[in-house]
Amino acid sequence: MASFAARIAVFILAMVIAQNGRRKKTTRRKRKGLYSKSEKNAIIDSLVHPLANEHWSFVIADGVLHALNEQDPVESLFKFLKYNAPELLKRILRDLR
Description:
Blueprint: H1 2-21, H2 37-52, H3 57-70, H4 73-83, H5 85-96
Helix pairs in contact: 2-3, 3-4
């Protein structure tokens, strides 16, 4: 009788272990990007602005990269015209002399 009780105890113990070992299915959260938009803008600024001091074409590259990051072409165009166009025009006119 002891061996039958031992078998039952082992069976119950095995069922408990097997049941606890199962993982519940969890829904995965949508993974956010590695960097936020503002962090990407800071990276673009830190990489392109030193080059923009060397040649005016990098000012255009800076505007294009920011537009791609923001994903709003109309707003990006207005920002480019407001912040970069005057300096860009000065640099182009200076290089033409």
